[in-house]
UniProtKB/TrEMBL annotation:
Enzyme Commission number, as recorded: 2.7.11.1
Organism field: Hymenobacter cellulosilyticus
Gene3D superfamilies: P-loop containing nucleotide triphosphate hydrolases
Composition skew (Polar residues), residue ranges: 1-13, 565-580
Protein name (record): non-specific serine/threonine protein kinase
Gene that encodes the chain: kaiC
Keywords annotated in UniProt: Coiled coil, Hydrolase, Kinase, Phosphoprotein, Repeat, Transferase
Positions of region (Disordered): 1-26, 558-580
Taxon lineage: Bacteria, Pseudomonadati, Bacteroidota, Cytophagia, Cytophagales
Keyword Mitochondrion: no
One of the record's GO molecular function terms: hydrolase activity
Taxonomy, superkingdom: Bacteria
Chain segments annotated as transmembrane: none
């Protein structure tokens, strides 16, 4: 009995999902989780200049080119020739698509002065005309631009609302995926205030100006039968059409790599436990003005290109020509990498675009160039475009985007020397990056030196030392750490300390040599003394040997004499001595 039971979640997964028609617009399908509702009307509303007509035309062109779905564009304001000319700069050849019978352009002229309110005016003629256009090419997609012009002939609000509902119902019955554009109303999404209620999907486009900077944003107000992104999404109108940046799709589920990328400075690599950065990680270099942040970034970019990689360098302060020229003075030759296409330098002023437009532009350049590393120099200039929270939000999304695509990112940031904690960045992204390198001024008596240290590096050990470095004609050179009586010594103090150490070493060597000479003298004296004692000993030994030899000879002679005497006077047994 229990085997036949299924959980509600498993039952829900088996239910069919709402069919969708991919729009083909970059980023929009990701936000809508598949596209627009198939066979249903979608309302695109917004103020003038936000790109409603362009989005509708791109929906038709992408459908024809990518999904082989013919389309009908019915316009109530611009002529077919005007529309074709307007979108030619985007690469959309509407006359060719018409000649191939994949697209049908139809202009309906509605002049309110020519319409009499007879009570019998309706949209029946439009349905016949639109139906013929759909059937003539087998259209699957329809765009109506714009609905306000169509309903200008309905001064009676009751009739107007009835016809709006009738139009949307007719489009659903026809089974075509439709985009209807509408103008923004006062306090409502549309002029009539009804279209958003009868539409299955409502997309709101906004073109706002903040601090003299224009930013376009898109928001999905509703989507019947489907989940969707609910945030505001920046979008960009470029020479290739509309590009939408999906924000909520960026999640912390990206793949990671164990491959190590070099900084381009061997001595700096040695300060990391893995001899460099992880590929796909984010690196932040912070410091005050003049601490060689750009030089460090250019060294990294050159190293990427030298190892057959591709690097995108986004400069907010220098032109490409100036950057290439300045780096040549420190033997960083970027010109060959620019020439062979491995290095691409994009230089713009931060105030040229808003933050969201910058973000969308970066997405587009990365998609086209496909780099393995990205350098942004410096991110602190973005403060001039938005407030701190906006800049931090933009950088968070950018870092996440680069991580998802396994692109190694290096950012430079200017910190104020007036702050007590000079390492803290104004953007507040230091906690988001994987590796944080700090370059600072090491001021001494009458001189200014540079120091570099690693504040953090996730996933690997790193040195805790502050290394002094020089910007020379051969690039960046890290110096060995010199410890003096009061701590680390830099600059002229380093030279003085080295001279003192050399003097101490020389004195120690001289003292050692003096002790060696004294030892040698004592050794010679001792050897002479030993020689004299040995000579004296040998003399005494010879004298004793002579005495012993003479005594032995005397003993032998005495013994020999006794022996001879005994032989000359023999002894007679029994004889008596004579008495006188």
């Amino acid at each position: 009995m229990l085997d036949n039971l299924t959980s509600p979640s498993s039952q829900a997964s088996e239910l069919p999902k709402l069919p969708k028609a991919p729009s083909g617009i970059d980023g929009l399908d990701e936000i809508t989780e598949g596209g627009l509702p198939l066979g249903r009307p979608t309302l695109i509303c917004g103020s003038a200049g936000c790109g409603k007509t362009l989005m509708g035309i791109e929906f038709l062109v992408r459908g024809i080119q990518d999904y082989n779905e013919p389309g009908v564009l019915m316009t109530f304001e611009e002529s077919a020739a005007e529309l074709a000319a307007n979108v030619t700069s985007l690469g959309f050849d509407l006359p060719r698509l018409q000649a191939e019978k994949k697209l049908r352009l139809d202009q309906v002229h509605v002049d309110r002065s020519e319409i009499e309110e007879t009570g019998e005016y309706d949209l029946e003629g439009l349905f016949i005309r639109l139906g013929h256009a759909i059937d003539s090419i087998g259209a699957k997609r329809v765009v109506l631009d714009t609905i306000e012009a169509l309903f200008s002939g309905f001064p009676n609000q009751g009739v107007l609302r009835s016809e709006i509902r009738r139009l949307f119902r007719w489009l659903k019955d026809k089974g075509v995926t439709t985009i209807i554009t509408a103008e923004r109303g006062e306090g409502t999404l549309t002029r009539q205030g009804l279209e958003e209620y009868v539409s299955d999907c409502v997309i709101l486009l906004d073109n706002r100006v903040i601090d003299q900077i224009t930013t376009r944003r898109l928001r999905i107000v509703k989507y019947r039968g489907s989940t969707h992104g609910t945030n505001e999404y920046p979008y960009l109108i470029t020479e290739e059409g509309i590009s939408v940046l999906p924000v909520t799709s960026l999640q912390l589920n990206h793949e990671v790599s164990d491959h190590i990328v070099s900084s381009g400075i061997p001595a700096l690599d040695e300060m990391f436990g893995r001899r460099g950065f992880y590929q796909g990680s984010s690196v932040l270099i912070t410091g005050t003005a003049g601490t060689a942040k750009t030089t460090l970034a250019a060294t990294f970019a050159a190293e990427i290109c030298r190892n057959e990689g591709r690097c995108l360098f986004l400069a907010f302060e220098e032109s490409p020509q100036q950057l290439v020229r300045n780096m040549q003075s420190v033997s960083i030759n970027l010109a060959p990498y620019v020439a062979n296409g491995r290095l691409r330098i994009e230089a713009t002023r931060p105030t040229l675009n808003g933050l969201e437009r910058h973000l969308v532009s970066i997405h587009k350049v990365i998609k086209d160039f496909k780099p393995t590393a990205v350098v942004i120099d410096p991110i602190s200039n973005l403060i001039s475009v938005g407030n701190l929270s906006e800049v931090k939000s933009m950088l968070i999304r950018l870092i996440d985007f680069l991580k998802v695509n396994n692109i190694t990112a290096l950012f430079t940031s200017l910190v104020s020397g007036r702050n007590i904690q000079q390492e803290m960045t104004e953007e507040g992204v230091s906690s988001l990056v994987d590796t944080w390198i700090s370059v600072r001024d090491l001021e001494g008596v009458g001189e200014r030196n540079r120091g570099i240290s690693i504040l953090k590096s996730r996933g690997m050990s790193h040195s805790n030392k502050v290394r002094e470095f020089l910007v020379t004609g051969k690039g960046i050179q890290l110096l060995d750490v010199v410890i003096g009586p009061s701590g680390i010594v830099t600059g002229a103090g380093r030279l003085t300390q080295q001279l003192q150490e050399q003097a101490q070493l020389m004195a120690a060597q001289q003292e050692a040599e003096r002790k060696d000479r004294e030892l040698e003298r004592r050794r010679r004296v001792l050897e002479a003394t030993i020689g004299n004692l040995r000579t004296e000993f040998e003399s005494v030994e010879e004298e004793l040997r002579q005495i012993n030899s003479e005594e032995l000879a005397r003993q032998q002679a005495l013994a020999h004499g006794k022996a001879q005497f005994s032989e000359t006077i023999p002894f007679q047994e029994g004889s008596q001595p004579q008495q006188s």
